[in-house]
Amino acid sequence: MNRVIKFRGKLSHSGTWEYGNLIINEYERPYIYPNNIVVEDGHHLRFDDDNAHWVIPETVGQFTGLHDKNGKEIYEGDIVGFANCMHVVYIGEGYNCVNIDSLVDGFPPSYKNIVGRDVIGNIHDNPELYKH
Length: 132
Known about the structure:
The protein is mostly beta strands and 132 residues long. Helix content is 0%, strand content 39%. The protein has a 6-stranded antiparallel sheet with strand order 6-3-2-1-7-8, with no helix packed on it. It has a 4-stranded antiparallel sheet with strand order 11-10-9-12, with no helix packed on it.
């Protein structure tokens, strides 16, 4: 099975989400290139620089490879709700989902526990859901 690697970020000028490939330029500014403008020739990737979209760095999140129960892609920064609590998804070592309301038996829920749940928002569009 091939792992799909893609990112999302909020556009700096409009605040809308852009999805695709993440490129960090020499000034450490993140850009999202939509998948349809990246051409692979077997050895190189060519990008259409006129279609690069600068995104707000704090909003960049990677696709986890998972979908919620409605088929929606789950990205880092998404808030997944189940039972009487919410969890923020992130990609990292060990557990990949942080319970922001309470711990379950002293540990955050495991990655697999977010599958079959609903994405109810994200930490950028719904900060009111994200209470430390």
